[in-house]
Amino acid sequence: MLTALTFAVGVRAGVFNIGAEGQLYLGALGAVLVAALPLPGFLYFPLGLLAGVGLAVAFAAIAGILKARRGVNEVVSTIMLNWVAFWIVEYMRTYQIADPHDPSKTIPVPPQARLPLLIKGTELSAAIIVAVAFVVAVYYILWHTVIGYEIRATGLNPDAARYAGIRVERSILASFIVGGIAAGLAGFLEVTGRPPHYAITTGLSNLLGLGFDGITVSLMGLNHPLAIIPASIFVAALKVGARGMQIEAGVPLEMVKAVQGVIIISLAAPGLIRTIQARRRARLVKEVETVAS
Amino acid sequence: MPVEALLQLAEVARLTTFSMTPLLLAAIGEIITELAGVVNIGLEGIMLLAGFTAVAAAEAWGPLAGLLAGVLVGALIGLLHGWISVYLKGDQIISGLGINIFALGFVAFGIEALWGVRGYYTPPPEAKVPRIPGLGVSPTFIAAIVIAVVSYYVLYKTGVGLKIRAVGEKPDAAESVGVHVERVQLAATIVGAALSGLAGAFLSIDWLAAITKELPAGRGFIALAIVNFANWNPVLALAGSGLFGFFWTLGEWVKNIGTIKAIIPIPLLNTIPYIATLIVTAGFIGKSRPPAHIGRPYRRE
Known about the structure:
The structure holds 2 protein chains of 2 kinds.
Chain A: H1 2-12, H2 20-35, H3 44-70, H4 74-96, E1 98-99, E2 102-106, H5 127-144, H6 146-156, H7 158-163, H8 168-192, H9 210-220, H10 225-249, H11 255-268, H12 272-292
Antiparallel strand pairs in A: 1-2
Helix pairs in contact in A: 1-6, 1-8, 1-9, 2-3, 2-4, 2-8, 2-9, 3-4, 3-8, 5-6, 5-8, 5-10, 6-8, 9-10, 9-11
Chain B: H1 2-35, H2 43-61, H3 63-87, H4 92-115, E1 120-121, H5 139-157, H6 159-169, H7 171-176, H8 181-207, E2 211-212, H9 219-229, H10 234-254, H11 258-263, H12 266-269, H13 272-284
Antiparallel strand pairs in B: 1-2
Helix pairs in contact in B: 1-5, 1-8, 1-9, 1-10, 2-3, 2-4, 2-8, 2-9, 3-4, 3-8, 5-6, 5-10, 6-8, 9-10, 9-13, 10-13
């Protein structure tokens, strides 16, 4: 759900930020790094959150600055950064913060920093509340604040936006930063709110692909923050179903990715989405032009 | 000592011929596609799917069949992407993303379904493309250089090339002089994707001789960076992939040097090609100019 926001906010600013994957790794890393420090119990949660989101935003900002200042294609830069993030976290996991009792994962997040489970015996934790709240907040920012308006106007028509006095570079960078916060938060929640590990496992296996799931979710929700909520439930159900299929029928989990790919490819073809977007675009361009004149 | 240094240099050069080949092939393919006005960011996925198919085909019918299978798979995906981009006027970036994600899932599934192993499969040695005796380089590398020169000639010195570039630059003008815009775009997308397919087959049955679900490891996106770097010129792409390929070799090569390995652990050395790509792209961009009508579907008035 949260990684979907990264992509959605990016699209709103007219950029394809596919860096949620790497930023999510770093969000998780932040939580675990702080867990390695000797701290009073109540500090783990806020400091882990700060470290995770901070690292993710720093990474997102690299792509944002490269795009806004140097015009570097964000598709290329975010993928490169994803790989850099992967190897940095892999390095930390094996060399710096490995669990002394179980080398296949990092040290776990201490119990004080874990999010409470909403229903005992399930994986449903308070993380979902945080996620929904954040989605609503981003919706509010995009549709009810000046910077949100500027981000959307930049995405619809950068030239018209610039003419209307919007600092386009700043909106692009802002979209990357909001996206980074969302992805970092996602990574942080994944290790603090997800039993049983509360850690990062070998080859980042418990984090792998979550950023790309976000792209599917965002596209299915037409890149609208609120529509992302039902879309994320759908994709989550697909994944849970796949887990069942793996156990019952031995169908590998990855099959879900292939299904997602098919969904995305069919969403790329026009039809509904394109006409809806074109209509919206026309409306907002008109708005911007009235402001400009 | 100088002799030894020279030998080491020669070895780095030889290894670079391997690391640059997939980048070069994919970059040339993308240059052809983009000059016709279509963007395909699905290179990574094409490489992966083609690499997978190539292993299966090479195991059954030998390495040449493997390479051909890779090309064929590439062309088929190019047909799909071209159909969505050109005829359905779909979103090219999203279609490319979809190809990448589909490949990731399908190949991970396929490796397990075909060979019953999880994540990693090594084909038998007879499925591997043999090296050129004496030189130790791959025939695919030589082919890639020939393709680069030929496609430069075709794109910039012949009527066919002019048509392709006209379609990417000003499709309405091209159409007014009788060029079939859609047909040219579809053909360019298929040819471009086929070259990425060859790159994928090269990875799985020629150079690395293994198939994993991370086979391309970002190379499809580095190829996209090379296209910009080379200003849509296949011969400059040769220089670009040489440079980026060198970073790849460098990353692998320093891992074998004990002192460096002791200071910088291997996972961090793995980041070298990606960081180098970022730095070079950030430094060079802005000097190149993309085709005018790139990435948008052509609609008649």
